[in-house]
């Protein structure tokens, strides 16, 4: 006996509408793999923006212009009543009118007929179908949406152009095309159409280069590339919080406005409400009462240090003293580490440097970490573990976006991330780095290298890309090239600081062990000629229950740059601020 053939089990993935917008994300439809067949026949509401559109018109019915047959022209009378000749002629006027128009005869030649004929209404446009590729930002792929002109008759004969926003209800069906997609939406009802001006819409042109998209930061998220970058950035954000929460860190928000200079090497943005800075006059100045001025420290470092030089009159200013946008939050973070143990912060930091570097903008987001009861070695290990965790998280949670990045931007990006996840990182001292670079004979560096000067980008690139071909952690830097709060080593010449240098990227993480000894910290502050009054609270941490502690700073925007294979940080920052440019 033959066994009855059983139908294969079909898994029907859930199509749960978003709680606050009552629509289904396209990702749940497009990324369910072989289970898409279980969605056929489901009614859903979707929304998105048109990526491409095409209108297919049906052939118009030509029978209306054919001359009628004798039976059609002169049908038998419905009743016994006989018609007069005048009534018969009047009943055939529409037919005569068609004959005249077919032969191109103007009704002006027959004024009598013109008076009798009624205006002919314009024939309706022929029926058509719209085939739209729409995307709502949840997925790399777009959904084919098929709309009959009967559903939106007002658009018949007009293509819905790229950039149009649409919200529609329809039934999911097997795709009628022979493309890559196996599913499409047949629209039953249009709930919203947001029109677009094709002549001024920046994305009407196909494949606008990234440098041109920077002029439209408010529109560029609609491109496939920037949308993919944004999803990777979001995933990396979540991964960073996940790593630190998994390891018992507390998230602490540190201030953006500060009165201290935590680095001592960077030009800062000064915050002021004073009208003294010449931001206008009269009512214009009143409107812009609260302003932010970039104070460029062009003079020698000795004249720009806090506590020295000529200060502007700030007694009437909002804070009553010089205030700046924060360059680093690690000093404030230390106060919480000395009470709560392991803490981290995530936020923007600001540098007012007129640099042309493609890896720096005025406002950059960073992750800053502080670990109590730890030394330099502990921070280096935490930094390496964090970096590897982020690489793995992106590969595990962004497969579609990383596939797109590999295809469009960098074919080796996935391989490089997998490689950096699986290997150990090289650790060398600053002195060892200098010795290696001095022995290089096949390359000439622009900056002459000697002990005691900072390593430049080309030095670091050679070590990571050419010499070791892997991430390198360089530690024990000369004390003159690192901030005042870094712990002085026993040799009295170097400090407990490190940089993590990654191939094709450069320095992604910088860290150090902080000076916990009050006398040593006071001596270092004196070397930097810093005001004791401004840093009194920081010295208090050494007076009252001091503890060894260390930490690091991870450049979040640089990590996004690394994960996407791009080279210019302006392409991964949603609204980049650079010298002379902050349009929106």
From TrEMBL:
Q: Which GO terms describe its cellular component?
A: mitochondrion
Look up the record and give one Gene Ontology term from the biological process aspect: asparaginyl-tRNA aminoacylation
Instruction: List, for all copies, the residue spans of the domain called Aminoacyl-transfer RNA synthetases class-II family profile.
Output: 231-574
The record's GO molecular-function terms, alphabetically, read: asparagine-tRNA ligase activity; ATP binding
Instruction: Quote the PANTHER family the UniProt record gives.
Output: ASPARAGINE--TRNA LIGASE, CYTOPLASMIC 2, ASPARTYL/LYSYL-TRNA SYNTHETASE
Q: What family does the entry list? A: Belongs to the class-II aminoacyl-tRNA synthetase family.
Q: What is this protein called?
A: asparagine--tRNA ligase
Lineage runs: Eukaryota, Viridiplantae, Streptophyta, Embryophyta, Tracheophyta
